[in-house]
């Protein structure tokens, strides 16, 4: 008999966070999230998103064995009457999924919301999008991996596609396209901006907060966008300062040294996280340090440009510098983060490269009667 229990103790929290590691122990493609990050994300004392989110998390049991999990996130300040589901993982048994979502639907009706959508997290920098293509591709530390049957479980419940994201593998060219360099040089002179070249992370700090203000502005009209609060920005800066390499951090500033765009690329941590199973202690930090030192694969985490500079060549400048450094450092390829399938502007950037669209992920919705 399936038993559903709301997560309301430290013991149940531990089971909630570690269940995926057990579920995917035989998968060669699953990459665990850092357990410390997940615990902080669901800790109201550490995640300021709880100032406007209510959260309920559930576990499914067969006897004493955990067989599924899901969380529900309700944004009290959002004008849209929706309830998000997140951290959905389950064995291949539809009845378990059904029981878990009965709890989600029950709460949704109590809240009088009109739709349940997901998987989505607390923000657009959190876990989002169910994998629907690319099950034979290695995951990344910023994206969800799931088994193919998840899709069929949700659709059997009545969920339908709401929005898709696509991801690309971009092969590093042997040399920089001279046309790109020429275009960037001309645009840069007209736009009166330049690429910052910090030598230490300390030199980046004065720009860090404004970078994520740009992120809030430039992504404001994107699907289900939730802007980062001041506290969330500070937490995000702290998180990424632990893994960024200055080689792959690109900040563009105007003549007044005000940030107008940035790009963050991170050495792939996939193999390192598989080795340490998402744990930093006691020795889990060692594979991560090795991965950061001599990477051959990059994860393209985020590019954001002030809307006033979108047509000024800032994005091509960031990409030009990224290519130059990737060539110099022996990077074999880069993986983009999830890009909305109808975001033709960003996808046009990859047309001059050797690319493969190797993953697709989906946000589902269930309309409540």
Q: Could you walk me through the main structural features you see in this protein, from its secondary elements to its overall organization?
A:
This protein is α+β, with helices and mostly antiparallel strands and 369 residues long. The protein has 2 domains: 2-164, Aminopeptidase, CATH 3.40.630.30; 173-331, 3-Layer(aba) Sandwich (Aminopeptidase), CATH 3.40.630. 34% of the residues lie in helices and 27% in strands. The protein has 11 helices and 14 strands. Strands 1, 2, 3, 4, 5, 6, 7, 8, 9, 10, 11, 12, 13 and 14 form a 14-stranded mixed beta sheet that branches. Strand 11 (297-305), helix 10 and strand 12 (333-336) form a beta-alpha-beta unit. Helix 5 (178-191) packs across helix 10 and helix 8 runs antiparallel to helix 9 (285-293). It is globular, with a radius of gyration of 21 Å. 38% of the residues are buried. The mean pLDDT is 90.
What is the topological layout?
Blueprint: E1 2-6, H1 10-23, H2 35-41, E2 53-62, E3 65-75, E4 82-90, H3 94-111, E5 115-118, E6 130-133, H4 149-157, E7 160-171, H5 178-191, E8 193-195, H6 205-218, H7 230-241, E9 249-254, E10 259-267, H8 270-276, H9 285-293, E11 297-305, H10 314-328, E12 333-336, E13 339-340, H11 344-348, E14 355-367
Parallel strand pairs: 4-5, 11-12
Antiparallel strand pairs: 1-2, 2-3, 3-4, 5-14, 6-14, 7-12, 7-13, 7-14, 8-9, 9-10, 10-11
Helix pairs in contact: 5-10, 8-9
């Amino acid at each position: 008999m399936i038993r559903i229990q709301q997560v309301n103790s430290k013991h149940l929290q531990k089971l909630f966070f570690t269940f995926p590691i057990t579920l995917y122990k035989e998968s060669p493609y699953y990459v665990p999230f850092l357990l410390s990050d997940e615990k902080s994300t669901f800790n109201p004392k550490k995640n300021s998103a709880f100032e406007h989110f209510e959260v309920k998390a559930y576990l499914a049991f067969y006897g004493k064995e955990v067989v599924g999990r899901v969380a529900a996130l309700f944004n009290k300040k959002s004008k849209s009457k929706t309830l998000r589901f997140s951290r959905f993982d389950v064995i291949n048994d539809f009845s378990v999924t059904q029981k878990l979502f009965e709890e989600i639907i029950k709460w949704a009706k109590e809240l009088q919301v009109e739709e349940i959508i997901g998987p989505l997290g607390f923000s657009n920098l959190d876990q989002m999008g169910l994998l629907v293509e690319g099950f034979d591709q290695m995951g990344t530390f910023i994206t969800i991996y799931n088994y193919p049957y998840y899709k069929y479980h949700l659709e059997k419940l009545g969920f339908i596609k709401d929005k898709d994201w696509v991801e690309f593998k971009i092969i590093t060219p042997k040399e920089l396209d001279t046309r790109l360099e020429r275009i960037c040089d001309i645009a840069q002179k007209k736009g009166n901006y330049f690429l910052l070249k910090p030598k230490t992370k300390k030199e980046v700090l004065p720009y860090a907060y404004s970078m994520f203000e740009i992120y809030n502005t430039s992504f404001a009209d994107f699907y289900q966008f939730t802007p980062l609060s001041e506290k969330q920005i500070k937490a995000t800066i702290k998180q990424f300062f632990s893994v960024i390499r200055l080689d792959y951090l690109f900040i563009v500033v105007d003549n007044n040294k005000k940030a107008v765009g940035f790009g963050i690329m991170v050495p792939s941590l996939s193999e390192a996280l598989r080795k340490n199973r998402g744990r930093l202690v006691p020795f889990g930090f060692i594979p991560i340090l090795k991965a950061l030192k001599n990477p051959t694969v990059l994860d393209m985490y985020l590019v954001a440009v002030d809307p006033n500079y979108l047509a000024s060549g800032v994005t091509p400048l960031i990409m030009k510098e990224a290519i130059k450094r990737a060539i110099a450092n022996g990077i074999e390829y880069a993986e983009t983060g999830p890009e909305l399938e109808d975001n033709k502007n960003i996808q046009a950037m990859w047309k001059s490269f050797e690319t493969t669209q190797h993953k697709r992920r989906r946000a589902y919705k269930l309309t409540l009667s």
